[in-house]
Specification:
- This protein is an alpha/beta fold and 216 residues long.
- It has one domain (14-213): Rossmann fold (3-Layer(aba) Sandwich).
- Helices cover 30% and strands 22% of the residues.
- The protein has six helices and nine strands.
- The protein has helices spanning 38-41, 83-105, 120-130, 155-159, 176-188, 206-213; strands at residues 14-17, 26-31, 53-58, 62-65, 73-76, 111-117, 137-141, 162-168, 194-198.
- The strands form two sheets. It has a seven-stranded mixed sheet.
- Strand 4 (62-65) and strand 5 form a beta hairpin.
- The chain starts with 13 loop residues before the first strand and ends with a helix.
């Protein structure tokens, strides 16, 4: 038995808030977490809609049922199976989407903000470091920065970013111990970041999101 691969074309879905035109001053690329759909995830970002901001929420390419009665569907960015291929395909997909959005805007004079939530944090991070786009602000919300991005060759780009780590003090998935280990690892890498903690669980809270955005 042999494992082989072929390239195929896949139709990807994304959601957006705002219109891509010349009046755009800020672009947000926002990445949902495990078992979520961008259709619902993006609603948390409506608070940023000011007529000059464009929010883009790519949806992960792998979907599955998340309830026993098959009533709800979620998506996942990757699993341990075919991990490297998923990373490559995610980067290509997101970069293709971003270039389309930039072309529709018609200029490059906009602030680019990238937010990854939970599992989406690693996907967002890998895209940021696989492309040459100028990212202004990078927000890791209830997630992690993958070790493969904490390399010597990436250090200069990390230093060019404003980095925000956002954690809920009542998050059952991100315990205090996990958070401290994560902060220790990136501190040893000498990564400068702002830590934002909020009184809540494993969710995007629009009020906290707005407060973070006002720090830019």
């Amino acid at each position: 038995m042999q494992s082989k691969h072929i390239n195929v074309t896949k139709r990807a879905r994304y959601y957006q808030i705002g219109e891509a035109n010349s009046s755009i001053k800020k672009v947000w690329m926002v990445f949902h977490g495990y078992a979520m759909l961008s259709e619902f995830f993006i609603k948390k970002f409506e608070i940023l809609n000011d007529g000059e901001t464009l929010i883009i929420a790519p949806e992960a390419l792998n979907r599955f049922y998340i309830t026993e009665d098959f009533s709800r569907v979620g998506a996942s960015w990757m699993t341990k199976l075919e991990r490297e291929n998923d990373i490559i395909e995610n980067n290509q997909y997101i970069e293709s989407l971003f270039q389309k959005v930039a072309k529709d805007i018609g200029h490059s004079n906009f602030q680019l903000n990238v937010l990854g939530f939970s599992q989406g944090s690693a996907t967002a991070c890998r895209w940021v470091f696989s492309a040459n786009n100028k990212v202004n602000n990078f927000i890791v919300w209830a997630g992690d920065i993958p070790k493969d991005s904490l390399t010597a060759e990436n250090k200069s780009k990390w230093n060019s970013l404003n980095i925000f780590l956002v954690f809920g003090t009542k998050d059952p998935l991100i315990t205090t111990d996990l958070s401290l280990k994560f902060q220790k690892r990136i501190s040893e890498y000498k990564l400068n970041f702002d830590l934002v903690e909020y009184d809540g669980d494993h969710r995007i809270f629009p009020k906290v999101l707005k407060e973070v955005s006002e720090k830019f």
